[in-house]
Amino acid sequence: MKNSDYKKNFIKTKVTAVIFLLLITSSIPIINGKNIENNIKYENSKEKSIEISKNPDGIDIEYAYSIIQNLSYIIFTEYNESAGEIAKGRAFGTKGEHKAAQILYENMTNLGLITTKEKINNTEHFPELTYGYDILDRKFTLKNEDYNETIECFISAIELSPPLVHEKIYNLSFKDLKIKKYPNTVFELIKTIIDDKKDEEYLFLAEKLNDGLNRDPNISLSFDLWLLRKIFNPISLPSVFYTYLRRDIRISFLEKRFHNCKGIIISQFEKDTFDTAVTPSGKKQPVIIVNKTIGDKVLKDINNFTVDFYIKEMYNKSIESYNVIGLLEGTDKNKTVVVDCLYDSVWCQGTGDAAIGMGIVMGVAKYFKDHNIHPKCNIKFIGFGGEEAGCRGVKFYTDVHNDENVTHVIDMNQVCSLQDYPRLTLNVIFNKFTFMNEIWPIIKESNYTKRVGNTDIAKRCWPLGAPSDDNHFTWSRKDKKFNIKTVCFLEDFPWIWHHRDGLKHKAGDVFDHVDWNEVEVLGEIVINIVKHLTV
After folding, report:
1. Average pLDDT over the chain, rounded to whole?
2. Could you write out the DSSP letters of every residue in 367-384?
3. Are 494 and 422 a contacting pair, CB within 8 Å?
4. Least confident piece of the model among 83-87, 165-169, 359-363, 529-533
5. Distance (Å, whole) CA 401 – CA 413
6. CB within 8 A of 249, min separation 6: which ones?
């Protein structure tokens, strides 16, 4: 099947929903599960004790703890920020992601699985899996008469034009840029367009430019976004597609109408953290994400602040990344059940998204080996690379393993974060009603809500799957039919730490926010589902 035909079929549902809404609105640690080694020490760190589970029907919490901690702390162990290196966590193609792949490979091998570290390459259907932007350096300095500080923030790469030259380094640098408030009314818009004709370069500062993706629990949504969430749920594929499209249209408007605007600063809703997942998709101006503390400081005295900033970037066509696969062979080797999670992250510890999920996957694998369980079909425990960069790993896997008879996929994404307000919901997202009706009684037996206490649980059925790696297993190029049963575990809106970093990587999506009680309960659920399907 041609790539263009595949894409048309894949996005048909999303595009229909968007059109409708637009019309009506305008050293490698080897973890043995016996001892936890913590050589990570950083300022103000406070280790929290947990009760180690002795539940014979659950995962080894001590083992999962070690996996989650080691993946989370890669942002501290693999980067030398004092020497000017940017700490990028486990981002796609970085040495942090490579370290994570090695950790998983060593531990899968140590468990006795048949382990493969499979390099992600370009394929016929996905010819640009190894392409992407590398930010080599960046700096953002805020100043006035009494203040001069380099700000902890995220600066996105920009899309370069004319056509990119592989490995050509591009520098963008500005000094003494003034800051203007982003126009939110018609009057402000007209005035800003007039002011833009003056020969003066500047940056915009906006508070709610990304309102469709904002995790602020108290945000007031525009009518189109409110309606979208009522109809589709905030984490459905049409909703995610529309909110990204809406934001990109607004940023593209800035690029076309405000020629002296050299970028946009987006102030976040939380005082210590900021988003680190803005991509350069179509953007000719950088997007600079700062926390609310900095945003409020500028707003109080916006006319007197100026900015110096630069970015150095390169377009790379040979990014290196891996899928890590641990095979537990079954009696019927012609059928495979996949238990998976992404193991990459954005520029943060990436604990909830998704070191925890990967720890649960590894905990399930250890359970099967510890209990000497011989499944009736193959089980593949997979850590997918590059999910945050557009599901690169799973796209490669489903393309090169197209003939593999995968019957079921159990996908873990962002789960088990401790958050008192607003109350979280664990979405259990199936692609088939029949599969949902088969599995939901198993989940109900866990008494999840009662045992976890501060998180609800909800079943959902979306034919294309969740906005996660499971999504790419739902469509078969062979017969154009949905033939694989999938389930994804995902806590999203209103999870406030999504993709967030701050305070020298100690705030946001961090190891201190793990809900260990939920890890134990969810691990038990996944074990029971996999046993139901394979034993």
Report:
1. 86
2. HHHHTT---SEEEEEEEE
3. yes
4. 165-169
5. 22
6. none
pLDDT in tens, 172-189: 999 999 999 988 888 888
Distance CA 59, CA 56 (A): 8
3-class DSSP state of 424: strand
Cα–Cα distance for residue pair 459/427, rounded to 1 Å: 6
pLDDT of 35 above 50: no
> Residue 167 in 3-state DSSP?
coil
Helix (H, G, I), strand (E, B) or coil at 155: strand
Q: What is the pLDDT of residues 216-246, one digit of tens each?
A: 777 777 787 778 777 778 788 787 777 777 7
- Going from the C-alpha of 4 to that of each of 11, 241, 440, the distances in angstroms are 11, 18, 36
Report the 10 Å Cβ neighbour count for 527. 21
Q: Check: pTM over 0.70? Answer yes or no.
A: yes
Q: What is the mean pLDDT of residues 146-162?
A: 89
Contact (CB, 8 A) for 350 and 73: no
Output the CA–CA distances (angstroms, integers) from residue 61 to 66, 441, 522, in the order listed: 9, 24, 11
Q: Which of these, 372, 473, 491, lies nearest to 432 by C-alpha position?
A: 473
Report the candidate in 443, 449, 455, 201 with the shortest Cα–Cα distance to residue 352: 455
> 144-166 as b/e, with b when 16 or more CB fall inside 10 Å?
eeeeeeebbbbbbbbebeeebee
Instruction: For 33, list phi and psi in degrees, rounded to 5.
Output: 80, 0
β 455-461/377-384 pair status:
unpaired
Q: Which of 57-66, 236-245, 407-416 has the highest mean pLDDT?
A: 407-416
**Distance between CA atoms of residues 57 and 62, nearest Å:** 15
Question: Where are the extended beta strands (E) located within 145-278?
Answer: 147-150, 154-155, 169-181, 202-206, 261-267, 274-275
Longest dimension (CA), the chain: 74
Element (H, E) at 487: strand 485-490
Cβ–Cβ under 8 Å, residues 93 and 320? yes
- Tokens, residue 357: 């999920």
Nearest CA among 393, 390, 417, 420 for reference residue 492: 417
Count the alpha carbons within 13 Å of 245 in the hemisphere toward its beta carbon: 16
- Which residues make Cβ contacts (< 8 Å) with residue 119, sequence separation at least 6? 320, 321, 322
Q: What is the DSSP letter of 351?
A: I
In order of 48, 72, 375, the CA distances from 512 in angstroms are: 8, 10, 36
Instruction: Spell out the domains of the chain, with CATH numbers in brackets.
Output: 31-38+59-128+321-431+463-534 (3.40.630.10), 132-316 (3.50.30)
* CA–CA dist 237, 429 (Å, integer): 12
